[in-house]
Design brief:
Layout lengths: L11 E5 L4 H12 L3 E6 L2 H13 L4 E5 L5 H15 L4 E4 L14 H29 L2 E6 L12 H21 L4 E8 L8 H4 L2 H10 L12 H8 L10 E4 L9
Parallel strand pairs: 1-2, 1-4, 2-3, 4-5, 5-6, 6-7
Helix pairs in contact: 1-2, 3-4, 4-5
The structure holds NADP nicotinamide-adenine-dinucleotide phosphate.
């Protein structure tokens, strides 16, 4: 028998939010697996650095400054990717933001910022790339969810709403696009040490509470998200769609 492979040679992957944190690890990880990588974020210098690092390892990479909340720029992202690599096999919808506030203090602007990036931006990226994947009759889309799609995270009402919505968008797209041989899945991290969560390290009480509730007793490293995304991006998961893989050190399994 032929063992399933996670080799991505010859495939092209767009990764949003690839300038730092989890997205940077995913860009380097998918590149190391053989993919041509399109690294996307608003900050050109950060994605330029990621693309340079990939090229220095012998991989092909393109860096694009795109804001996922600006609808017109999503089509430009698709066109520039096609100019460079001719097709799009993988989209990792990773760009995300949060606003930490008690629910009673959340403003309309806070709500719109989080929902427009994590939910609206995620969906319209999937739509722009999905239209190309429909033409190609193949593709794998992976959306970055969170434990906040399943359980409450205090002071994060808009964030949890965005990730709950993302879980449903993932299922609907999986169902609608299965006939085009496009799989749509999600990966849900718990607490990962990235710039998004650097506030935790500065608050010993919060850090102790979070690691105390995590059976593995620590936060995760961004590189620990690569395996789940690589599996979902590759043919190793050819019969998996509409699913979320949680990468959480056992946190969601913890009952008390
Ligand atoms: N860290 C965790 O513990 C954790 C847990 C669960 C889920 N997640 C999810 O994992 C993803 C990555 O999180 P992270 O911790 O790596 O975050 P991060 O370190 O803050 O990085 C976020 C990335 O997204 C980009 N980004 C933000 N808004 C954007 C926009 N409008 N358009 C394009 N790019 C944008 C940022 O670059 P620019 O600001 O330069 O655009 C940056 O490259 C998010 O979806 C997050 O919700 C993280």
């Amino acid at each position: 028998m032929q063992l399933p492979s996670m080799n991505l040679e010859g495939k092209t992957a767009i990764i949003t939010g690839a300038g730092r944190g989890i997205g940077k690890s995913l860009a380097l990880g998918l590149g190391a697996a053989g993919a041509n990588v399109v690294a996307v974020s608003r900050t050109q210098e950060q994605v330029d650095e990621v693309a340079s690092e990939l090229r220095s390892m012998g991989h092909q990479a393109l860096a694009l400054s795109v804001d996922v909340t600006v609808m017109d720029s999503l089509q430009v992202m698709v066109e520039k990717t096609l100019e460079a690599f001719g097709k799009i096999d993988i989209l990792v919808n990773n760009a995300g933001v949060t606003v930490k506030k008690p629910a009673e203090d959340v403003t309309e602007n806070d709500w719109d910022t989080v929902i427009n990036t994590n939910l609206k931006g995620m969906f319209f990226c999937a739509q722009a790339v999905g239209r190309q994947m429909i033409k190609q009759r193949s593709g794998s889309i992976i959306n970055l969810s969170s434990i906040g799609s399943k359980v409450a995270i205090s002071n994060s009402v808009a964030y949890c709403a965005s990730k709950g919505g993302l879980a449903q968008v993932t299922r609907v797209l999986a169902v609608e696009w299965a006939k085009y041989n496009i799989r749509v899945n999600a990966v849900g991290p718990a607490y990962i040490e990235t710039p998004l969560l650097k506030w935790i390290k500065d608050q010993p009480e919060a850090y102790g509470r979070i690691t105390g509730r995590t059976p593995m007793g620590r936060m995760g490293h961004p590189d620990e998200i690569i395996g789940a995304v690589l599996y979902l991006a590759s043919d190793a998961s050819s019969y998996v769609t509409g699913e979320t893989i949680f990468v959480d050190g056992g946190l969601l399994a913890y009952g008390i």
